[in-house]
Amino acid sequence: MVTRKEKREMEKEVNYLFELLKTQNHFFKNLNKLLKDVDDPRHQSYITYDTEVLLMMVILKNACNLKSMREMTNEFNKEECIKNLGKLLGNEDLEELPHYDTINDFLARVNPAELERIRIDMIKKLFKKRCFDSYRINGEYWGIAIDGTGIFTFDKKHCEHCLRRVYKYTDKETGEEKTKTIYMHHVLEAKLIVGNMVLSVASEFIENESEDVKKQDCELNAFYRLTARLKDTFKKLPICLIADSLYACENVLKQCKANNWNYLFRFKEDRIKSIAD
Questions:
Q1: Helix axes 219-233 and 250-258, enclosed angle (nearest 10)
Q2: For a designed S-S bond to 35, which of 52, 64, 191, 222 qualifies (C-beta 3.0 to 4.6 A apart)?
Q3: Shortest CA distance to 230 belongs to which of 274, 191, 275, 277?
């Protein structure tokens, strides 16, 4: 068993920038070009930092397990970090890094399809390299887990696409029955399972078309949109869909069979059941 001291000593000898460059050159040689080619919606005359700088900072933030954009700005505001990012991007003239407000402003404006294109390209390259083949289910199927998650909750309406949930409660002071409306944003994620890692392969927001809809969007409706895109993107990929019991219904099974997908469902008893043929 490796002690914490031994682990620290081992890490001292690792050149993390070299390892990152080696990984990028092996799997994602065109990553810098993909980041640079993202359609920039900002006014061109006010641009200081190109898209590849903004997006690579976010990639490195997640790779370094930094929890917030503010923390990223603080931790990366070092000469060594600026120099290393310049090496990653092949931009030796890089002298400063953008503030997180600049990055947030860009991300709020950029077309999500531009970033989706990069993710799809990277996932397909991993499949092509066959580096995860040993994690296939029964040596054949790629396990892709589908699940919804909440990302934001508000006491007041955030936008016309918010989901709404009304709670009834009793006022402790007056004893009156009251209601409270919570506004939310949820997303449905499809994640490729490879050992103890999960890689996001597709996302579908669960949101209302407008605030006056009679029936709100839901996880199942988002599922049909998500899986249609999955099939269109990865046409011949043998998939084993992994989901909870919410999806164990006739329409879901029909869609899986139409796509030639296998399927596994987790029930409340915490055991995995396969009801595929």
A1: 0
A2: 52
A3: 191
